[in-house]
Amino acid sequence: MIRRLVGYDTTSALSNLALIEDVKAYLASHGVESRLTYDEAHGKANLFATIGPKDKGGVVLSGHTDVVPVTGQPWDTDPFEVVEKDGRLYGRGTSDMKSFIAIGLALVPEMVKADLKVPIHFALSYDEEVGCFGVKHLLADIVANLPLPRAVIIGEPTEMRLITGHKGVSDYRVKVRGVAGHSSMPQNGVNAIFAASTLIEAVKRMQEEAKQRLSAQDFEPPYSTYNIGRIDGGTAGNIIAQDCDFSVEIRVIPEDDAAALEAALYREVAALDAALKAQHPQAGASVSLNAGVPPLRPETDGAAEALLKHLTGINQTGVVAFATEGGLFQDAGMSTIMCGPGSIVQAHQPNEFIALSQVEAGEVFLRKLVAWARTAD
Description:
Shape: elongated
Strand content: 15-25%
GO molecular function: acetylornithine deacetylase activity; metal ion binding
Number of strands: 16
CATH superfamily of the largest domain: Zn peptidases
CATH architecture of the largest domain: 3-Layer(aba) Sandwich
Mean pLDDT: 96
Strand order of the largest sheet: 1-2-6-3-7-15
CATH class of the largest domain: Alpha Beta
Number of helices: 10
Protein name: Acetylornithine deacetylase
Order of helices and strands: HHEEEEEHHEHEEEHEEEHEHEHEEH
Distance between the termini: 30 Å
Radius of gyration: 23 Å
Low-confidence stretches: none
């Protein structure tokens, strides 16, 4: 099943419908119905399917079907054909995170025969890698039409560790507009790059303030972080720059106030906008949110954490800096935890792989879940 799923090129820029239709047909062959929710263009879809009683909340196995691009990466093999070598399976999505989905799907025949008392749900999403856009439609459908699941397992690669928290992430685009002119007469124009540099300095100040304000010792680093990862501006060395755009990413620890951090960024941009318009009516600055994902907050006596501790015998939990769909499930009212085979270190890399030992560990874990769901209330 891992080979089957990895064989579909579901890079986020492409459709995932071929994979989704294949999974839907596979589930149907075992008597399992699927619910699909689509993007506006009907070129991508989420899938939600239930095995067991449909009038109970149950446990969700959640995974995203999209993968990051392989363009420009030096792969030694075809990234969309699984290659087994030295106890590893190589291929795009083997670690992040088609192996988790595949292990679960491979156990569907056993789930169907098990006469589950507690339902097990599959929640497969699109566009996680570019902002977790797809799962929002899936969650809206669950909340509006289905019993709310009691627990959600996000199968991101954690090496089967129990992860109860992660940082949230928001990605912004700042646009600064100046007035072009010959560089020999700067008094006749407004330099957008100069203006943007004041905002960049403000972002650097925000980072220093975040370091001093809060410390979540479980995270590395233990504070909210800012990054400016891309900047574009100007047309030539002898022209006053008319435009300068740059990205701002904020990764927020659960203890921090994401809304306050966003408001501070918007205030800085608004102040610059006013200052530029005072110089020239055509100048200005604006900011927009491209994508935002809330943090996953460690739960006190969470149902998902309690269940996985019971199934695995693991009492230690941790947190990670990268973001997932987990915070969205949690914000929709579902107890959520991360636990899945593979390592995030291999994710997004050329020659991405998952160790066969991790696949085996994931299978053992999900078999325990099935056994529990046969008898639990």
